[in-house]
Amino acid sequence: MRADARRNADALTDAAKAVFASDGVDAPAKLIADRAGVGVGTLYRRFPQRSDLVVAVFQRAVESTAAAADELAAAHAPDEALARWLQRFTEFVATKRGLAAALHSGDPAFAALPEYFVGRLGGALGGLLDAAAEAGTIRPDVDAQQLLHAVADLCHGAASIEQSQMLVGLLVDGLRYRATV
Hints:
Blueprint: H1 3-23, H2 29-36, H3 40-46, H4 50-75, H5 78-95, H6 97-103, H7 113-135, H8 144-157, H9 161-177
Helix pairs in contact: 1-2, 1-4, 4-5, 4-7, 5-7, 5-8, 5-9, 8-9
């Protein structure tokens, strides 16, 4: 992709992320294009269907969240890296409520995303869980996929990101409760 086309795609994806968060995934295309500083034609050339843009925003967020696992693991003790990543995942879930409805709408354009989500984020979380369990700082009987779902459930029931983070903090304390250290 040409450099200017890449910049436009990035600007559109960033703008869509912000607009989706404030106005929902059905926000007008012109609002997204204006925020990105491009014309509506540029938006439709890069993302011909609304679903293409939704997928791009979702995948970028998943990749960023997954990549954070390695960064946190390199900078912190295993249980702290896990706790920090779960807080980041909490933010991901809390800010993607509008996208979740679109993803579960039955639109075939989104059919592969749940497996992608669980594969990428479950893999990232699994590495953090394994390291913390091996270090003896969390209980060893935790499944990554189950923990992803537990955190998502806590977030969906919470009234705010702050409440979600507090609840996930309690969950992390529970993971540490029966650790071997």
